[in-house]
User: What shape does this take?
Amino acid sequence: QVQLVESGGGLVQAGDSLRLSCAASGHTFSSYAMGWFRQAPGKERELIGATTRSGGSTYYPDSVKGRFTISRDNGKNTVDLQMNSLKPEDTAVYYCTGRNAWGQGTQVTVSS
Assistant: This one.
């Protein structure tokens, strides 16, 4: 069973950067793809990025493309989300997911 723990959320101003990290345990990390989702109040959970098992391929929706970058380190069992040029509309709880497991989420708040 996979366990995921996110960290790195916080309160920032518009235009700032923030890096989230997700630490995985419980299964061979390099054997499954990883993704990041977010959920804002009153909205559905939204996929904002994903990476393949090797990290060689990534996906981003248009809403974050060019601002967010996913990177994984299979040696450290971590997957990070670098977020640049943050906007107030990026405010949400951010979750990492992999192998049908979810982390507890970390709050990101972007003030205008």
Observations:
- The mean pLDDT is 96.
